[in-house]
Design goal:
With about 550 residues, this protein is α+β, with helices and mostly antiparallel strands. A six-stranded antiparallel β-barrel has the order 1-2-3-6-5-4. Strands 7-8-9-12-11-10 form a six-stranded antiparallel beta barrel. It has a two-stranded antiparallel sheet with strand order 13-14. β19 and β20 (about 400) form a beta hairpin. α2 (about 50-65) crosses α6 (about 275-285), α2 crosses α7 and α6 packs parallel to α7 (about 295-305). The longest helix has 19 residues, at about 50-65.
Length: about 550
């Protein structure tokens, strides 16, 4: 993140730039431009112990860089660059809160940049751009490497990618180990033809003017060869471009864009030439492998390669899983070393790199609360709950064990409580307290409604239900017998099987009420009619028979007279 006023990177976790409004000290440029003139190899005091220490640290990294280092030629074609070379330009963000740009020069992830970009950093993140848009595609972690005194003097340093970056959501932005796209010198480069004034210059980097996270390309001319041995260009070089890639009109490596000073150079960009980097920095580092190699970058690389010892088991682990891994002391079935993380480090979520245990713990706590922790499972970092903590019902946070009732109430309402058991996810199993019932969706314990007399709440139906032997009326629940008698008169009864009113035996329904069978039959069939209990209907009594119309009873004697 950059300050919109002065362009300086804002430290992580800070909202304001502490350098806001201040200019870059001119002493920085005095030191930066105090190198040898272009094309001149300044002699180094090889008796200085700092030089020898730096040689031991950086020999392996810089030898590979020398394999691809070209002198910059003169040509007539417009500025070009091998298409994949723009993928070699990366954005650098370090744990100091500062950063800039860099260029990948070896396929195993060695990056060349300015010393002031990574100075004081213990770990940095590098962003690989999308080839079409220049926006973020992959992110890796890288370890800074400086050569004491040399890095400071020539403002040149390196980083080595050692792991893929995993964000706070567990997403891993790349794979590691991996083969990285390194800068490749075009075949048109001719070391016998030096650059001259007016040649085209193209700058690749991540300036603040682009937001700091988008690869940006600017064009200009080779404006001047400074008295200090540096190249000045009209191509736009802004804060964040430092450490990036400068190429000439044939796409050959011209050097490292480093700074711009508005006062002395009227906004001209400053480029550390490739000759200065090679002759006074890279070749000096390679001298321990072969002193004669200073005269030839290719000989230096070959001599250094020949002097490289066979990798130890620790080195094999570190080449595969980053410098924070080490040999476990065991070999697998194929005879290869098995690797583990050093003390204080654990496997990240990908299982392919070792990350600081404190970083993993912080990630778990930021996502699941202070009661969570990180632990490796199946070779990968996972989050769990500390002793005395357990997952909440939604498995979204680790909560204290004694507050499971509170967690249930937070998830299901104040009428919920912890049943004392855990669910399949390890969270508390919740139920509804007395006086509360689950809603129909089983997502909340709601207050049990007050049911009318002679009824109770049916949780499965989500409503009040009348007791057995009672029926629902407009005013509540009423005795079924009373209800039927009030509805159909004396002699009516309630049939639970049909949930309806029926007439008792000896009574018949006349369409509105229940009447005694004798009264019902007499009224309809006349004298001689009587109620038949067997058929629950009317029949003619002794000495009577059904008349010819079938509507009543007549005396049997009337048929003879």
């Amino acid at each position: 993140m950059y300050c919109k006023i002065c362009g300086h990177r804002i430290e992580r976790g800070k909202k304001f730039c502490k350098n806001c409004g201040s200019s870059v000290p001119s002493s920085f440029f005095t030191a930066l431009l105090g190198a040898v003139p272009l094309g001149t190899a300044r002699r180094l005091d090889m008796r200085n112990p700092w030089i020898w220490l730096g040689i031991g640290v950086a020999t392996a990294s810089f030898g590979a860089i020398l394999l691809v280092w070209p002198l910059h030629p003169h040509g007539k074609s417009p500025t070009v660059i091998v298409p994949q070379n723009q993928l070699a330009v990366v954005d650098i963000n370090c744990d100091t809160g500062y950063g800039g740009s860099g260029t990948v020069f070896t396929s195993d992830g060695t990056i060349l940049t300015n010393n002031h970009v990574i100075q004081g950093a213990k770990e940095c993140e590098v962003t690989i751009p999308d080839p079409a848009t220049g926006q973020i595609s992959k992110i890796y972690k890288a370890v800074p490497s400086i050569v004491p005194k040399l890095s400071k003097k020539y403002d040149v340093a390196t980083l080595k990618i050692d792991a893929a970056y995993t964000d706070k959501n567990g997403k891993t932005w790349g794979t590691y180990p991996a083969t990285f796209t390194a800068f490749v010198s075009p075949s048109t480069c001719d070391p016998t033809q030096p650059s001259k004034l007016g040649d085209s210059v193209r700058i690749y980097g991540y300036p603040v003017t682009s937001g700091g996270y988008n690869l940006t390309v600017t064009d200009g001319l080779l404006s001047s060869f400074s008295d200090n041995g540096y190249i000045l260009t009209s191509a736009k070089v802004d804060s964040g471009n430092s450490g990036g890639l400068a190429v000439d009109q044939d796409g050959c490596w011209l050097g490292i864009p480093s700074a711009v000073e508005a006062g002395n150079y009227q906004n001209l960009g400053v480029i550390i030439p490739g000759e200065v980097v090679a002759a006074n920095f890279l070749n000096a580092v390679a001298a321990k492998a072969d002193p004669a190699a200073i005269k030839s970058p290719l000989r230096a690389a070959n001599a250094e390669s020949a002097a490289t010892p066979q990798l130890s088991n620790d080195q094999i682990c570190q080449s595969g899983f980053g410098q924070n891994s080490e040999w476990s002391g065991q070999l697998d079935s194929s005879g290869k070393p098995t690797c583990r993380c050093k003390d204080g480090y654990s496997w990240d979520a990908s299982g392919n790199a070792c990350a600081l245990q404190s970083d993993l713990e912080q990630w778990c706590e930021s996502n699941y609360g202070t009661g969570s922790y990180s632990s490796p499972q199946n070779g990968k970092a996972t989050c769990g709950c500390d002793t005395g903590y357990t997952w909440n019902a939604g498995q979204t946070a680790c909560v204290p064990q004694e507050t499971n009732d509170e967690q249930c109430q937070a998830d299901y309402g104040i009428g919920s409580y912890w049943t004392g058991t855990t669910n399949a996810q390890g969270g508390p199993t919740c139920g509804c307290q007395s006086g509360y019932v689950w809603n129909t969706a089983q997502t909340e314990c709601v207050a049990q409604p007050s049911c009318p007399l002679y009824s109770s709440y049916d949780a499965s139906a989500g409503q009040c239900e009348c007791w057995s032997g009672y029926v629902t009326t407009a005013t509540g629940c009423e005795s079924a017998l009373t209800y039927c008698e009030n509805k159909e008169g004396f002699g009516a009864t309630y049939d639970a099987a049909t949930n309806s009113c029926e007439c008792e035996p000896g009574y018949m329904f006349d369409g509105s009420t229940c009447q005694s069978g004798y009264s019902y039959c007499s009224a309809r069939w006349g004298v001689g009619a009587e109620y038949d209990y067997n058929t629950n209907g009317c029949a003619c009594g002794y000495g009577y028979t059904v008349n010819s119309s079938g509507t009543g009873c007549q005396s049997i004697y009337s048929t003879y007279y």
